[in-house]
Amino acid sequence: MKKLLVLSLAAITLAAFSARAEDAKALYEKDCLKCHGSDGKGDTKMGKKLGVKDYTDAKVQEELKDAVALKAIKEGLKDKEDKVLMKPTDGLSDEDIKGLVAYMRKFKK
């Protein structure tokens, strides 16, 4: 009985993580794909125009701290002339944003 309970809890936890990963992918495709591309390289028309970073680059990933990424997604980014480079993502919970950052980390090669 005890083993069944442990296995059930493990299955529920795994299902929740899988759902979160799918949600993060859907959010990325909805909000980030246009600039960052499906592979995270930023090799899109808009990505090239804005000079987005290549998130498949291990060095870029290493230099980007989670707190900075979370803040950028939540508050947006502006350049030195106060021009909007990335709009804030409205309507996302902190958990959603953490999921996006985790999804982005998977692009690292």
Description:
The protein is mainly alpha-helical. The chain has a single domain, classed as Cytochrome Bc1 Complex, Chain D, domain 2 (Orthogonal Bundle). The chain is 62% helix and 5% strand. The chain has six helices and two strands. A two-stranded antiparallel sheet has the order 1-2. Strand 1 and strand 2 form a beta hairpin. Helix 5 crosses helix 6. About 15% of the residues have low confidence.
Q: What is the residue-averaged pLDDT?
A: 84
Helix content: 55-70%
CATH architecture label: Orthogonal Bundle
Q: Structurally, how many domains make up the residues?
A: 1
CATH class: Mainly Alpha
Q: How many helices in DSSP terms?
A: 6
Radius of gyration: 17 Å
Per CATH, the superfamily is Cytochrome c-like domain
Name the shape in a single word.
globular
CATH topology: Cytochrome Bc1 Complex, Chain D, domain 2
Largest sheet: 2 strands, antiparallel
Distance between the termini: 43 Å
- The neighbouring-strand order within the major sheet is 1-2
Order of helices and strands: HHHHHEEH
Helix and strand layout, with pairings?
Blueprint: H1 2-31, H2 33-36, H3 45-50, H4 58-63, H5 66-75, E1 77-78, E2 84-86, H6 94-105
Antiparallel strand pairs: 1-2
Summary of the model, kept short:
This protein has 109 residues and is mainly α. The protein is 62% helix and 5% strand. Strand 1 and strand 2 form a beta hairpin.
Essential attributes:
109 residues; mainly alpha; Cytochrome Bc1 Complex, Chain D, domain 2; two-stranded antiparallel ribbon; 62% helix
